[in-house]
Amino acid sequence: MRLFACAVGLVMAMTLAQSVPAEDLQQRLAAASVKRGQMLFMVCKACHDLEPGQQPPKAGPALNGIFGRKAGTEPGFKYTDAMVRSGIVWTPETMDTFLKQPGALVPGTGMAFPGLPGDADRASLIAYLMSVTAAH
Q: In whole angstroms, what is the distance from residue 106 CA to residue 96 CA?
């Protein structure tokens, strides 16, 4: 019985932790290091450009104007059906969830990146992306 109570408590704690991600993310973004995010982007840079039309094109879509855009809609890039059907609109919150474990948010995504588990690192990467990807 004690084990059951511990398991129930753990599930409740996990549920509560997941119910405040927007506030938590805002706090993490406020403390984020854009410079660290720029360094972390070096991994992303293998597949993503920050501006469209780079040659040769990379394996992933360009990220300019990503925030506020519906997933799977960047012209000139062939997305998986899973990404197109995901219905995601890229916000700092959806980006945080995706970067934590892409395949969990969009099963069938073509993104080979396994995820970035560190909350502070994800916030720094998102802060960097927000600073350099404003729509032109």
A: 13
Residue type present at position 16: L
Structural domain for 27, as ranges: 2-132
Paired with 70 in beta bridges are 89
pLDDT tens for the chain, 136 residues long, are: 443 333 333 333 333 334 346 789 999 999 999 999 999 999 999 999 998 888 888 999 999 999 999 999 998 899 999 999 999 999 999 999 999 999 999 999 999 999 999 999 999 999 999 999 975 5
| Whole-structure pTM value | 0.81
d(CA 37, CA 32): 8
What is the number of domains present in the chain?
1
Q: CA 103 to CA 90: how far, in whole Å? A: 16
Here the CATH number for the domain that contains residue 78 is 1.10.760.10
